[in-house]
Write a structure and sequence with these properties.
Elements: H1 3-38, H2 54-64, H3 75-92, E1 102-104, E2 107-109, H4 119-140, H5 144-175, H6 180-185, H7 197-210, H8 222-225, H9 235-260, H10 271-292, H11 298-326
Antiparallel strand pairs: 1-2
Length: 327
């Protein structure tokens, strides 16, 4: 591999992960502003123009905040858990194509860090690793509230992973590939959200639960678990959990864009802009749900998964397989 190829790979990593990190920072600002306006408040206002410097101020505050470590915690696991959650969330984005192939220095460069034949399996596998980090964070803190939050998270995320994975099988069957770029190319004539509307609905609901967002934010549940699995974390260790949650939202939105909304495809605007706008639509939906719905009870959450989402996802897989076999 030549020096130019290495430089292109390094540049793709820096640009894509840098853009993702900047998006996370200003997604926190966007969420607070949107929630504020929906609830007739102003949101961040005083740090920079319309509060645009608030994410930077929050980052500085978290960096210099006192780093408290629990004396009775299992130290190695306690420090490792936030890194497991963060690395799995960021690494999941490596195979998602954010645009079409471009020509750079006489080379065809895909706008993703890696173009993997089984890219979808890679994303699902890495996102599953986040469960381990959350459970280990709750267990290692030696705090009953953190442990309950970790156990809730394990039950919730493992349960909702099943209908989410089954919902994604619909686009895979129609495209005949697990490669995310090939799935986007298969939507040249019609986006998969049209024939796979049931799978799209199941994925949306399951994705909200996978990200621990309202109305499925039971692992944190401040009212009864005082933040749940990360209650004993502070400073940058807490910030890593914070980053991972928002990165997981971006991955869920980007995956929905890739599999159901034609990825980067669209008229007039550049492909990367189309991808960003479609992903931003899903992020806005996450925020809108938080402003609208109250938190479910845990028994309601689990019943909804196993009695409704899972059978619906299975029915969609069987129906799609039957139609594809007939074709």
């Amino acid at each position: 591999m030549s020096a130019i190829d290495l430089a292109i790979i390094a540049g793709r990593i820096l640009v894509i992960f840098g853009a993702a990190t900047l998006t996370i920072a200003y997604l926190t600002w966007l969420e607070r502003k949107v929630l504020g306006h929906m609830q007739h408040r102003c949101g961040p206002l005083h740090v920079g123009w319309h509060g645009l410097l608030q994410p930077i101020a929050d980052g500085i505050k978290l960096f210099f905040k006192e780093d408290i470590a629990v004396t009775e915690a299992s130290r190695a696991v306690y420090y490792l858990a936030p890194f497991i959650v963060t690395v799995s969330a960021f690494a999941s984005f490596a195979v998602i194509p954010v645009g079409d192939v471009i020509n750079l220095a006489g080379r065809r460069v895909p706008l993703s860090i890696a173009d993997v034949n089984v890219g979808l399996l890679y994303v699902l596998g890495l996102s599953s690793l986040a469960v381990y980090g959350i459970v280990l964070a709750g267990w290692s803190s030696n705090n009953k509230y953190a442990l309950l939050g970790g156990l809730r998270s394990a039950a919730q995320m493992i349960s909702y992973e099943i209908p989410v994975a089954l919902a994604l099988m619909g686009p895979v069957l129609m495209a005949g590939s697990l490669n995310l770029r090939e799935i986007v190319e298969a939507q040249s004539k019609v986006w998969f959200v049209v024939p796979q509307l049931i799978a799209f609905a199941v994925y949306l609901v399951g994705g909200v639960a996978e990200c621990n967002r309202t109305p499925f934010d039971l692992p944190e549940a401040e009212s009864e678990l005082v933040a749940g699995y990360h209650v004993e974390y502070s400073s940058m260790k807490f910030a890593l959990f914070f980053l991972a949650e928002y990165m997981h939202m971006i991955v869920m939105g980007a995956l929905a864009t890739t599999l159901f909304l034609g990825g980067w495809k669209g008229p007039w605007l550049p492909p990367t802009v189309w991808f960003a706008l479609k992903t931003l639509l899903f992020l806005f939906l996450f925020i809108w749900l938080r402003a609208t719905y109250p938190r479910l009870r845990f028994d309601q959450l689990m019943r909804f998964c196993w009695k409704y989402l899972l059978p619906l996802a299975l029915l969609n897989v069987v129906g799609t397989s039957f139609v594809m076999a007939l074709r």
